[in-house]
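Hi R.,

As promised on Friday, here is the backbone we talked about, encoded as structure tokens. Could you run it through your design pipeline when you get a chance and send me back a sequence?
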């Protein structure tokens, strides 16, 4: 019986290792936000076996009303990344999924931009990236860093890449919330701050108003817009793509059948992860 038990443990370990990667839930205490921020990290197969290896990183941003856990629980990014790593469609990388919101949008902060009471962009660059890239053995340079996201996270990733082109090699925006109307802020409703911030950080207006120098910096990244033909954000994503073309900033576009749904984003991951991987140097 003892030998059988040992064999069972050995087989279980083998199955766990052969399945590829694992997801780790971690957190950081932010001085900027005055709160603890949770995040998930997908670690590729072999991460624990080679303590000297360093990896490229993809920051994968969730959407409005969701949390850091959505990409695993709803998007199954761990299963898809395992499969793509096994087939050689992506190279070993670390995928980081930070928290920037929650379902109680009236009372809980959402969003990736700095706004009154919620300096998330400052937190992301001054606290989060240094902490993550030090702890998880990230190469830590532009050529080995990518950003992507869906909806609110699609807009967040686009604006991050626009405002910090020296930080990322590529940006893949899924069903991206790129602009908004200039609505008044309701102090009792935190969602109104998000809408205002998206308006003030319009990715479309950024391209329209970009100087020649800024446009040149944007051409050093690889851009990808992925939007469903039934998505309510379709028009603004197409407008953004049109502005990128007019500015002569190369940008790939995919319009597929589908709406603003996890069915669509689950499929989009199979394009977005290889896109990030191809553009790591």
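Update: got your reply. Pasting your designed sequence below so it's all in one thread:
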């Amino acid at each position: 019986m003892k030998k059988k038990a040992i064999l069972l443990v050995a087989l279980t370990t083998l199955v766990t290792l052969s399945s590829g990667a694992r997801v780790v839930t971690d957190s950081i205490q932010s001085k900027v936000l005055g709160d603890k921020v949770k995040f998930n990290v997908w670690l590729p197969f072999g991460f624990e076996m080679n303590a000297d290896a360093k990896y490229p990183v993809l920051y994968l941003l969730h959407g409005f009303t969701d949390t850091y856990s959505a990409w695993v629980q709803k998007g199954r990014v761990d299963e898809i990344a395992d499969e793509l790593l096994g087939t050689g469609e992506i190279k070993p990388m670390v995928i980081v999924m930070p928290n920037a919101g929650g379902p109680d949008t009236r009372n809980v902060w959402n969003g990736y931009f700095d706004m009154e009471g919620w300096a998330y962009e400052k937190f992301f660059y001054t606290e989060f990236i240094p902490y993550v890239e030090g702890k998880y053995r990230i190469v830590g340079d532009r050529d080995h860093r990518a950003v992507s996201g869906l909806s609110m996270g699609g807009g967040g990733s686009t604006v991050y890449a626009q405002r910090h082109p020296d930080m990322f090699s590529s940006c893949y925006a899924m069903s991206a919330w790129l602009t908004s109307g200039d609505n008044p802020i309701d102090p009792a409703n935190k969602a109104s701050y998000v809408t205002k911030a998206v308006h003030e950080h319009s990715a479309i207006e950024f391209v329209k108003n970009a100087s020649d120098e800024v446009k040149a910096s944007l051409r050093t990244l690889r851009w990808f817009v992925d939007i469903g033909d039934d998505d309510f954000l379709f028009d603004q994503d197409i407008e953004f793509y049109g502005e990128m073309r007019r500015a002569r900033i190369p940008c790939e576009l995919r319009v597929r059948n589908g709406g603003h749904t996890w069915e669509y984003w689950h499929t989009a991951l199979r394009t977005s992860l290889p896109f990030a991987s191809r553009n790591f140097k």
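One thing I noticed while checking it: The domain at 21-278 is CATH 3.40.50.1820 (Rossmann fold).

Thanks again,
M.
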